Structures are given as C-alpha cells and as structure tokens.
Amino acid sequence: MDLPFLIADDDSVFMWDLTCHFSQEKCLKSQSIRTSQQLRVALSSQQFSGLILEPNLPGGTWWSNMEIVRSRGLSHRTVVVTSYESAALVRRAQTLGVRAIIVKPVGAPSVVSALLDDDWQSPSRSSHVDQSLAGVEWEYLNRAILSANGKIAQAARLLGIPRQTLYRKLRKLPRKEHAPAPPLSVIEIEESACRK
To answer: Is the whole-model pTM more than 0.85?
Structure first.
C-alpha cells in the first residue's frame, strides 16, 4: 500500500493546486493540513511518503514545526515551501537535511518534482535582497530564535523584549510586494472540484 504525501500549508489555493497535481498528474494520494497542531497530530498518528511544509503555520513557530519534522525522521523527504526565506530558516532546514527549500510563488509541478525527482535541481536564487524594514526585522528575530535554539522566551530575553511581543511580531510576516495574486479565488477553485 502506498503511503500518502502530507501537505502542510495555510494557503488554500496553493494546497488545492498541490492536491490536484498529486491526484491527477501523478495518481498519488495526499492529505492536507493547515496548522501546527494538525501537523503534530498527523505526523504522530500516520506515516507519509513525504512532506510539503510551509514552516510558518498558524499555532506555532517555524522552529517548532521544523523540530516536529526532525523528531519524526521525515527531514530528508521534506520540501520546505515558504513565502519568506530567512537565512535562519535556510540554515536550520539545511542542518536538518531537507530535500529542498522553495520560495513562493511557485507552481505545484515544481514542488512535486522537488519532492519526487532524485535529479531535481533547485532553480537559481534571485540576488534580490529584501531591504524593507519588515524584512530586516524578520531576519533579526529569526536569527535570535536560531541563537536560542528555538526557545522563544530565551530569544525574547536576548532581544530585550517581552515574549508576547516576540510572538506578535512573528505572526506578522513581511509582505512580498512582487508576489502575484492567485489567478482564481478559493471559491472558484472549490467549485471546479479540481476538474480540467
């Protein structure tokens, strides 16, 4: 019996696109989840062939979500797909041995290829550096978390801010102005029921 693939992302359009690609193009089963708690439950109760993970899921931090994956021994079969690629996230993902790190916007075929194809090559990364204040702050916060080994309270002490303030700042992801809007609304996609 083939094990399903797990898609952990809170972007409904992206998850639907991946689910359709798995079922229609590759004839593979997949399961979708949206929160850190669902990730923890799914990985502790089932086995999966692989994982597509947005590390910034609601209800947890990117560090805690990466630790869940590490503790279940799934790192080498994981593709990290993120809206914002921080240096701390990349270092942690590489340390854990994830298969690939891909920055959104990206299409389902590229993500599935990164997960399934042994000879997949990462596209060259753009030399664009996010110089916005939000991007610099995000990077700084994530470096503090990396220095504190994922412990939010310790990172907050390093930064000299209350723990609640750090949690609030982590919930606010920097916006990427160059990211295109999805072509269809979630309602339109759900109505199409993944038909071509």
So the answer is: no
Contact 108, 20 (CB under 8 A): yes
Asked if 84 and 124 sit in the same domain, the reply is: yes
SS3 48: coil
123-156 pLDDT, tens digit each:
555 444 445 777 778 877 887 888 788 889 998 9
CB 64 within 8 A of CB 92: no
Q: Are residues 95 and 153 in the same domain?
A: no
Q: Where are the alpha helices (DSSP H) in the chain?
A: 12-20, 36-45, 62-71, 87-96, 108-116, 133-147, 152-159, 163-171, 186-192
- Identity of the residue numbered 59: G
> How many structural domains is the chain composed of?
2
